[in-house]
Amino acid sequence: MLKVNKVDTFYGKSQALWDVSLDIKEAEIVALIGANGAGKTTLLNTISGVLVPTSGTVEFIGQKIDGMAPHRIVGMGLSHIPEGRRLFVEMSVRENLEMGAYSSRAWKHRAETFEQVYKIFPILKERAGQLARTLSGGEQQMLAMGRGLMSRPKLCMFDEPSYGLAPRLLREVFEAIKSLREQGITILLIEQNVRNTLDISDRAYVLENGRIALEGKSQDLLKKELIKKSYLGL
Ligand SMILES: Nc1ncnc2c1ncn2[C@@H]1O[C@H](COP(=O)(O)OP(=O)(O)OP(=O)(O)O)[C@@H](O)[C@H]1O
Ligand SMILES: [Mg+2]
Q1: Is position 218 within any domain?
Q2: Is 132 within a domain?
Q3: N or C: which end of the chain has fewer CB within 10 A?
Q4: H helices present in 100-201, as ranges
Q5: What's the pLDDT at 185?
Q6: What domain count does the chain have?
Q7: Residue 209: its pLDDT value, please?
Q8: Which has the minimum average pLDDT: 109-123, 168-182, 198-212?
């Protein structure tokens, strides 16, 4: 479904990704793990068209998307739920969700998608008329995820959805991600919470200093020394 092939990405003269390759099959949950500054967000931005790689390619459902405008990539069914939520804080919950459905394909089906999103996150229905800035941190995270779903994605990329959440909400976020996969949505998940992430994902990639250091089945990675020492504190 998604194929990143030997990508290099720069910020000006400073290189952030080196020769990064990654692929995701339909209905997989794939995790991307790495320390602060490893290049995880840079890789998602390179996939979603916010950044353009200087070499290498990105393909989504068989079509080359590197160099394509981000809104067109969303229109093809690839949704990016960014780090730090990036909500429209002076708009209501309902309006934030509507903003997620701006592509013409999604707009036509928005009534139905609203119901699906409200089913996954009932709290958003209760709060539909409330300004986004008045939601709790956990509710804001759910709104960011809900907004990403409003584009009716085939593949969803989440950048640290559990960031700053209490354990109970953290479980809810992971449950929500599992339920998306059950609905046939493919997932690329960035998380610092390595144990939980390897538990819910099928496969994972470890990014270190802008390079893929390790990849494999998540259950196998749990046994690797590098993972145990550097990411699980064992
Ligand atoms: N806009 C930018 N301009 C210049 N350098 C940047 C920019 N954004 C990120 N970088 C650098 O690129 C590298 C990778 O950053 P990135 O944000 O991708 O890391 P990350 O793995 O997402 O980290 P975190 O876990 O802290 O979110 C870092 O060294 C960072 O300082
Ligand atoms: Mg990041």
Answers
A1: yes
A2: no
A3: C
A4: 104-108, 110-120, 122-126, 137-149, 167-182, 194-200
A5: 94
A6: 1
A7: 96
A8: 168-182
